[in-house]
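Suppose a colleague, Dr. K., hands you the sequence of a protein chain of 449 amino acids and asks what its three-dimensional shape might be. Before reaching for any lab equipment, you can write down a predicted structure in token form. Begin with the sequence itself:
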Amino acid sequence: MNETPVVITRNRTSTASRSTQFTFSENDIVPEKAKDLAAVREHAWEVYKTQGIPATTEEAWRRTDLSRLNAGQFGLQNNDLNDYSAATPPEEILRPLADTEQAGQIILSINDEKIKLSNDLLEKGVVFTTFSELRKNNPSLLARYIGKIVKPEEGLFPAMVQAFGQDGIFLFIPKNVKISQPLHSIIWGAIEKTARLSHVIVVLEENSEATFIHETASPENENGSAFHAGIVEILIGENARLQFVELQSLGKNVWNFSNERARVENQGTIEWTFGAIGSRLTKNFTDLDLVGEGATGKMSGFYFTDGTQHLDHDTQQNHLAPHTTSDLLFKGALLDNSHSVWQGMIYVAPGAQKTDGYQANRNLILSRNAHADSIPGLEIKADDVRCTHGATVGKIDKDELFYLLSRGIPQKEAERLIVEGFFDPIMQRIPFEGVRNRFQQYIHNKMAV
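The predicted structure, expressed as tokens, is then:
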């Protein structure tokens, strides 16, 4: 793997100052026995010290205001919390989301971790485990990949995760191994006045295939602020294929920040599906780097906000090689006083001829005071490409509503049916009935009378 990959991104670093900075110190860094891992933490710490809380004067943060974050209230997570009342995820979170039997599952909760993987995959060299297990049994494997796709220099929050983070999930699929059954992981829990820092790494070697469903969730809690920052790093090798479904259902007391990037090599493919319905505020950076000729990336996003929720998704489709294809469709619905932001960019590098890039964002406003910002963008530096984009923000069609009401359907039910129809193009992209059912349940819950 190239250790210094080209990364195209809007500026996300910040030297802005706030009177309520995080109070983490060098003493909070977890000691590492492996020198390589210790070096990762040390480097991240040095970067972290140069970062400030982002301000709305910065382009990437213009529509997401962190002035009410009060960062000084958050301490780092202490895993020794035997009295934590929501240590175990509820049954609906644990239930398999795929239609077939799972090949493995990891549950990473506040004070416990459970790891299951079929013996057949263990014998084939598949690694599906936690960072803590890797630190004990195979630290060199973790050191080989951690921080190689998402760098701490990309901002305060990735630097924070790499300097202080404890939690992590690691998936490694060896060359020529193809897994037909899905893998499932859950990072569960966020505690009042505590910073939960998580990290997910997915590596598919040449000619391998896998399906991975990952969820970050916590109890529904309106009292007391909690904090989560996460990193997702994905490497798709030559001719490898990954279906990755990612769900975010954090409680509405959680400030949530994530930096995610997939790097796709020659003829590799990723189908990446996002579903977001939780958190008080989310700022998510998601990058698709198509670095190999013939690489393909398909990104599908579902979000539904209510109350005073604020969800900000910043996506980039970076075409860095010829004959690459990207296809992005994000759809969102908004209720009450909620606010969504989607900022998207298709970048085509010099020489990346025969690029085919598409992005679209559609928003459905369901309340007078809800607001959606939709900002697509193109930056093209090659001359033989096909790139298109589009964005819409609208309300429920009155004629559609009248048609349903005229057939005796109550108004709330009619509105819900219209919303389900609005999201149907996203549902059609999801290969698992369990995930589709979860999304439909989100719609029912949000629109309950």
